[in-house]
């Protein structure tokens, strides 16, 4: 009898362990019409299992996943899901003002809260997506646990200033409508291929990322912004934790063409940058680090994960941040 009981207990333990090891976690792609499963991963650990869902907001010229397959956050949602996280990848207009994109994200955050039954979300943004998550946190602080900015142009980018100067020059009225129409049309198609139609406004997006545009935004949404040049901002405001990191690399991998694309724009920036965003402009709340050897696309593991082999992987950085949020009870 004892032998039989022991066998049943051991068998039951094995079955329970097998069931636990076979647990899966999904990540979802969202837009203002709703969310749908993007895929599922077998959970191998609870390292990234935060209390509240992780919600991602892409930057300018971004998307959620083209054709539902090629993701802006290349390999990152999958890795987080495998480590126990509940992940939602949102989609906003590739080009529009910070306020329009922020409203689009806020609609999706409310949907995600309803879907999950969670009281709050952890927001993570890259580039112009940082303004989006700051917008939502500023308006819905009781429903946001944390804000994590990755390479956010929080004080603008000289690249945007220079392009805006060209738009305002005598030739601006001639070239601006042509170029902006082409950009808007192309990224409308990108949005549709990612699962949703958005109206695009590249000139509004450009204005939002100038030093003047970001200064106006910061007046309305100052939470987490440094009060000294290149300093750190408040770690917590209205119950929301603020974090940030950024890079200062450009030519990081000879196999990745993004370095060559970003080299000309990096020359427009005085001082270290990731090719588009100055080092200090990325500062928001607690600055984890601002000089990873990553360019502006490396920071989200693009293209195809061809980043510097001599720097920590972007995938690891996002996983570590999820663990950091977990340890903070978020």
Radius of gyration: 21 Å
The total count of strands amounts to 11
Helix content: 25-40%
SSE order: HEEEEEHEHEHEHHHHEEHEH
User: In CATH's first tier, which class applies?
Assistant: Alpha Beta
Oligomer category: single chain
What would you note in describing this structure?
- Helix content is 39%, strand content 18%.
- The protein is α/β, with parallel strands linked by helices.
- It has a single domain (24-327), classed as 3-Layer(aba) Sandwich (Rossmann fold), CATH 3.40.50.
- Strands 1, 2, 3, 6, 7, 8, 9, 10 and 11 form a nine-stranded mixed β-sheet that branches. A two-stranded antiparallel ribbon has the order 4-5.
- Helix 3 (98-116) packs across helix 4 (129-139).
- The longest helix has 22 residues, at 172-193.
- The N and C termini lie far apart (48 Å).
- Residues 1-21 have low confidence and may be disordered.
């Amino acid at each position: 009898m004892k032998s039989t009981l022991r066998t049943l207990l051991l068998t039951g333990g094995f079955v329970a362990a097998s069931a636990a090891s076979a647990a899966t976690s999904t990540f979802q792609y969202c837009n203002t019409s709703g969310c749908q499963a993007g895929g599922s991963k077998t959970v191998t650990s609870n390292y990234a299992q935060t209390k509240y869902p992780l919600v991602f907001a892409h930057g300018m010229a971004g998307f959620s996943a083209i054709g539902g397959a090629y993701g802006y956050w290349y390999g990152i949602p999958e890795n987080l899901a495998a480590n126990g996280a509940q992940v939602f990848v949102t989609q906003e207009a590739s080009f529009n003002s910070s306020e329009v994109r922020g409203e689009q994200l806020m609609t999706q955050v409310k949907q995600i809260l309803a879907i999950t039954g969670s009281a709050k979300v952890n927001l993570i943004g890259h580039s112009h997506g940082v303004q989006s998550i700051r917008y939502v946190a500023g308006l819905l602080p009781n429903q946001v646990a944390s804000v994590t900015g990755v390479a956010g142009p929080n004080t603008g980018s000289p690249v945007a200033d220079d392009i805006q100067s060209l738009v305002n020059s005598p030739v601006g009225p001639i070239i601006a409508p042509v170029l902006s129409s082409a950009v808007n049309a192309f990224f409308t198609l990108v949005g549709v291929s990612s699962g949703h139609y958005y109206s695009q406004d590249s000139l509004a997006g450009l204005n939002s990322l100038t030093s003047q545009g970001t200064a106006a935004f910061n007046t309305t949404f100052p939470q987490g912004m440094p009060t000294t040049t290149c300093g750190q901002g408040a770690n917590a405001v209205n119950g929301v934790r603020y974090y940030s990191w950024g890079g200062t690399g450009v030519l990081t991998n000879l196999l990745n063409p993004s370095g060559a694309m970003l080299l000309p724009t990096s020359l427009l920036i005085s001082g270290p940058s990731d090719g588009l965003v100055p080092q200090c402009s990325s500062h928001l709340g607690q600055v984890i680090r601002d000089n990873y050897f990553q360019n502006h696309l490396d920071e989200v593991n693009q293209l195809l994960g061809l980043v510097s082999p001599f720097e920590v992987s972007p995938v690891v950085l996002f996983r570590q941040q999820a663990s950091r949020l977990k340890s903070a009870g978020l």
